[in-house]
Design a protein that fits this description.
Elements: E1 4-7, H1 13-20, E2 24-27, H2 36-42, E3 48-51, H3 58-63, E4 69-72, H4 82-88, E5 91-93, H5 100-115, H6 118-126, E6 147-151, H7 155-168, E7 171-175, H8 181-187, E8 190-191, H9 194-200, E9 203-206, H10 220-225, E10 231-234, H11 243-251, E11 257-260, E12 280-282, H12 291-309
Parallel strand pairs: 1-2, 1-3, 3-4, 4-5, 6-7, 6-9, 7-8, 9-10, 10-11, 11-12
Bound molecules: (2R)-2,3-dihydroxypropanoic acid.
Keywords: Oxidoreductase
Pfam family, one: 2-Hacid_dh_C
Organism: Gracilibacillus oryzae
Length: about 325
Amino acid sequence: MKKKVLVTEPIPQKVIDYLESEVELERWDKSEKMPRELLLQKIPSFHGLITSKDKIDQEFLQTAKNIEGVSNISVGYDNLDIEALKASKVIATHTPYVLDETVADLIFGLILATARRIPELQQYVREGNWNRSVDQSLFGYNVHHKKLGIIGMGRIGEKVARRAKLGFEMEVSYYNRSRKEDVEKELDVKYEEMNSLLQTSDFILLMTPLTKQTHHMINAEAFKMMKPTCFFINAARGAVVDEEAMINALENKEILGAGLDVFEQEPVAKDNPLLEMDNVVTLPHVGSATAETREEMKLFAAKNMLQLLKGEKPDALIKELQ
Ligand code: DGY
């Protein structure tokens, strides 16, 4: 008898065919999240879940009587309670590597859009305001030859550093829990203590995963250390930043602007003050969202699922569960 897998995200036909060759599949094809109650109602009969947003906690694991593994379609896995997974001996996987370049591209888009005010100036042109020569009220700031400070030097951070060094001749520093001397040598980037990086960077990129330890790591004190000409970019997870502190820092001109792909609450609340600020570029968490990369991620997640159901070690087992 085939094992049963529930997929709570739309997946392309290619991935459906691949999975159906080995398992019995049930799919939730809507872009809205599957309601929690429905997930809990269905899950007891399934051996595997492929998801990207569902909260995998004690309640889920106690209900999912037959579950062998959860395959997350994302590199970040803050929706998974790792301790609860360990305790219930359920395997979980994610999708690193395949999205690194795509997310790095988007980050550079955010850096440029923020410093050169691209969305704001597009609005200016569209609204028919371009009836005189460009004066300093429309000027932005240079990106090239500035200093980029990366907090959290993982694979994506490295891809961004490469773009910054080779494409924009920027000075790049990073802060990470552990030093990466090979990366320092290869890319000519410098390790710097967090406070010094905060105080001296023109662009600060946050790439730290969200964990209990990193929750609100960038707080009011951190924003106060930044230069008043600094642009803050977050493409990691919203809750690594104390969003209220960031709003205050922007309102009080402690920093010059922000480029945000992620928020503490997603989808972002319509009355979030960040949406009203001209110096803030906001995106709907699209770091990896290209047709090619999302397909690759879904295929990777499917492969991880089939491996784990066969009792093989999946290609991308989450490191805390190894
Ligand atoms: C991830 O995979 O964690 C990214 O945030 C998705 O864009």
